[in-house]
# Entry
Amino acid sequence: MKHDPGGNHHSRLPGRKPTRAKGIAATVTAVVALAGATATPARASQDPNPPWPQLLPPRPLTDRTQPKPTWRCHKATMRCFADTIRRMKKLQRRYGCDHRGVFATTYLLLTQQMRETIRKNPHYFHDLRWLIYEDTVFANFYFRVIDADARGKPLPQAWKIAFDTAKRGDANAGQDMLLGINAHVQRDMPFVLATVGLRTKKGETRKPDHDVVNQILSDAYEPIVSAIGHRYDSLVTITNASWNPLDDFAGLETVKGWREGVWRNAERLLDAKTAAERKQVSDSIEQNAAAWAASIAAPQIPPGYRAQRDAYCRAGGAKAG
# Structure
């Protein structure tokens, strides 16, 4: 089945009631609105993932940057996914109950969902080669920041806030998850897209392939939240909780808004005519991601939760592995 650029293949997330997002979720959604994004809290479970990004046209660009062999993926085949997944599983095991393992697990499960989607539907993306290179470059960004942190090197501010929050440990797993997504998507991804290019050799936009990933995010969302709840923090599976940033669909809709902003920032990077212009765009990307990170990390609710959360994980979570 060819991907429908109009986004007419939705999936329903089971077992969720149409509730209003509160607490951190409401804060996140409010910040999206203030930032000018169009993400809003879901209003009804029958349409949890409206495809509004697909309706927004790409910006005209003359840039013809194309994907090319990259570290750990010299030829764009499904083996690149297998290699990335092996690296992620190794990192997940290394982290154990370290709170950084929440995003490592999120990223692992999402990558597995991406691979399974392609296996079941080889024509899901218009250009699988581009997608595979993008996925590998994206993962390389993540592993480089992990290495930089281990070596005590300076980190992008969004990542520093995410790692510092994980090390302090008083946040809940929903915050850890969103902090990692924010840093990797809002901070890293514009540079990834600028590396692999936004248009084909014929000048056609690659935005449909970027946008259709939102459906994969939707498909993976419930399994990921469930896995995080079973492994790291049972509270993230409780709905209608004021401290839970994953409550209802606000988290998912927010990430969709972030990914639309990512595309626009990548356009700005490729459209920059001078080094000074590119630096101005880069600085704005860094500042935006850092501001989001500070907002997500700010609520430490419930206070002193680290001991309970870590004991739960060390005891084997909900025996889900």
